[in-house]
Amino acid sequence: MTKNRRAIYPGTFDPITNGHLDIIKRACKIFDEIIVAVAQSEAKKPLFSLEERIKMIKATTQNHPKIKVIGFENLLVNLSDELDANFIIRGLRAVSDFEYELQMGYANSSLKKELETIYLMPNLEQAFVSSSVVRSILYFDGKIDHLVPKEVYNMIKKDK
Predict the structure, then answer these.
(1) Whether residue 44 lies in the annotated active site
(2) pTM of the predicted protein model
(3) What are the chain's domains?
(4) Is 93 a catalytic residue?
């Protein structure tokens, strides 16, 4: 019997963007199960609560049976043990992302040798999109419908 290839895609997802969704969909082609792990991240002072972020991602991915969405607030390596997942998915938009992600990948590997980090780039159309860009535009009540999944846009619009 082959073991399920399960990967964790961790992040704050404040909010989830079309770039995140692109990474998730492409990771589904590689792995049997993707666990989108939403970090509590109080240090980052998220705009949306953990529950809201989880709800947004579940609404966006509800038609994708390979995807499970959870919240977490512990070390990623501990979460990988709890979930029996030895693959981490990370998105790279620019060289600046690479330096940080490489350090994090090495740090995680130093804590758990069998943990592999897989880096995926979003499609070119989404390469500039980040949650912080979306939050900045939201702050000024700007147009974000082209940056986030429609379910997320509708949830944000409803709450305004």
Answers:
(1) yes
(2) 0.93
(3) 6-159 (3.40.50.620)
(4) yes
